[in-house]
Each structure stands twice: as structure tokens, then as C-alpha cells.
Amino acid sequence: MASSEDLALDLEELKHLHSIAKRPRVLSLISSEIAKLEKISNEAAPAPSLQTTIPAAVSIVPKAASNPLLNYVTLSSFSWDQDNDKLKIYISLEGVDQEKIEADFKRISFDIKFNDVQGKNYRCAVPKLNKEIEPEKCKLIVKPKRVVVTLAKASKGNWLDLHFKEDKLKPNLDKEKDPMAGIMGLMKNMYEEGDEEMKRTIAKAWTDARSGKAADPLQSYR
Asked: Torsions phi, psi of 208, nearest 5?
């Protein structure tokens, strides 16, 4: 079952495509998928729960006093690069105090909170990384205009993406049970049945919606 974050991203992309689509059949297909995902999203909305601390989590900086009532601005725009052993994330943020950072690294995720940065609180997190990391070897460095986060790879090699992606070549045995299984099929049909203008529009919209964070899923159909 897709997470609430995945549902929200898919809804956003479908609504964007709906706003630029012209063909009646394509509009009908997108509207149907939007209605289906909105229903699933409403039914799957989880009840608020208390945060728990997992022993495996590792923090490499002193944690500031955590306040569940604080509001955080999500830092979704950042750059990253890598070598064979590690991956570095560059977060543009001025005025960060090292003592007011909460850094939580786990085998397959990280969650970093920047408290009281010029009167605001910021958060940068990836709930599921592309591959495993070594939490105890991860670190961050605060610079005047940015923060550099270093993730130590558990195994050497190149990551195709920062975020975990399902293997799209693997047969989906739970297609009937998974409400998200039809999304890629819908995109493929829209691409194959559309004219050249529609194909270019869908490819551009998909890329723009992901803001460069995901590989173009239509690459194999060009």
C-alpha cells in the first residue's frame, strides 16, 4: 500500500496533468484516477500518534529540547552528489546554530531538524533512502550559508537516486490489491495515444512535478 506521502505526490501530478490535458478521453481517465486517489487518501489518513525513539537511531550532534508543538518548514529543495563511499547533501540555510540541530540517522532514513533559525524551524528528511547507510558514520557540517550532510554508504557503489524507488521491472503480483498499480499504466496509455504535442507535454509535466528528484518514467517509451 502506498504511503500518504506517495498518495499526495501522485495526486499533485495527476491534477497538474489534468490542467494541461486537452483530449476528452485523457481528461476522463485522469479525473477518474484523481477521484479514486482522493477517496483512498481520505480513508488512509492516519490518526495522530506520539513519536517514539528507536534504539537503532543515532544522533551525531546534541539534540535540542524537542517540542511536539513546534511547526517546521519542510526543506524539499536541496542538491546532492556522491562518490563510491559516501553521499553529500547540500542544504542552503543561513543562521543555523549547531547546538540547535536535531539529527536522527537510521539505516534507511534520516531526519534533521533546524530549530530557531532566524525565528523559524526547518526540517529536512528522507523517510526511505535508495540504499542503506551507516548511521554512526554520518555527520553534518554547519557553514555560514549552508549545511552539508554526509551519508556514509553501507556498501560501495553508485546510487541512481537519493530516494527509494520500486523496481518497475518487477511483476506486480498485488496489482488488484494495490490502488496505485494503475498509475503507470494510465501514464503509458496517455503517452501512447496522444499526439506529439501531448507526448512532449506529459514528459515535461512529469519531470517538472518531480523537480528533478525522480527519473523520467516515460524514458522507455520514447
From this structure: -65, -40
